[in-house]
Amino acid sequence: MSRVGKMPIPLPSGVEVTINGPHIVVKGPKGELSRDLLPEMRVEQADGRLLVSRPSDQQRHRAMHGLTRSLIDNMVKGVSEGFSKTLEMQGVGYRAQMQGAELVLAIGFSHPVHIAPPGGIQFEVEGNTRIIVRGVNKEQVGQVAADVRKIRPPEPYKGKGIRYLGEYVRRKAGKAGKATH
């Protein structure tokens, strides 16, 4: 049995789950998420929690058991608490600000970069150098944060760029450091 797959998913108060065959809909205080699961996986709701079971011990079913449980658990956490990723900008003159719902970045280009949030995502700016990406869908929050980081990834010589909060960027010596041997 999959250690992850056999763990029950607790349903917090205010979260409502509708299972219609392979389609699952999770509603909560922060929003609503739906997803089509693998038709062979069985999801049962009992005693305020969800249980995911697999039909057999085939390799495919074992592989999808834990994944299905994790996807549903992330949906439940998303609609009850939400997800967020924090990015920080390092570099002289690098700053972020909000214009309505749009994020505007000054990151060393000749023009400001405007980023409109996709549906279900909100941007927040702390100070001028921290960007917080919030939403209910964990995949979407991670993808939008990665897309923002991709605009100006951290470079290894001076460390300038957009990085995840706490991300370690390995530094290189540069030309002057190479000549001394």
Write a structural description.
The protein is an alpha+beta fold and 181 residues long. The protein has 3 helices and 13 strands. The longest helix has 22 residues, at 59-80. The protein is elongated and about 60 Å long. The mean pLDDT is 91.
Short description:
The protein has 181 residues and is of the alpha+beta class. The chain is built from three helices and 13 strands, in the order ββββββαββββββαβα.
In terms of topology, how is this protein built?
Layout: E1 9-10, E2 16-20, E3 23-28, E4 31-36, E5 42-46, E6 49-53, H1 59-80, E7 83-90, E8 95-99, E9 102-106, E10 113-115, E11 121-126, E12 130-135, H2 138-151, E13 161-164, H3 175-178
Antiparallel strand pairs: 1-6, 2-3, 3-4, 5-6, 7-12, 7-13, 8-9, 9-10, 11-12
Q: Let me know the CATH homologous superfamily of the largest domain.
A: Ribosomal protein L6
The CATH topology assignment of the largest domain is Outer Surface Protein A, domain 3
CATH class annotation of the largest domain: Alpha Beta
Q: Can you tell me the overall shape? A: elongated
Q: DSSP helix count?
A: 3
The CATH architecture of the largest domain comes to Alpha-Beta Complex
- Briefly note the structural class of the backbone: alpha+beta
Strand order of the largest sheet: 11-12-7-13
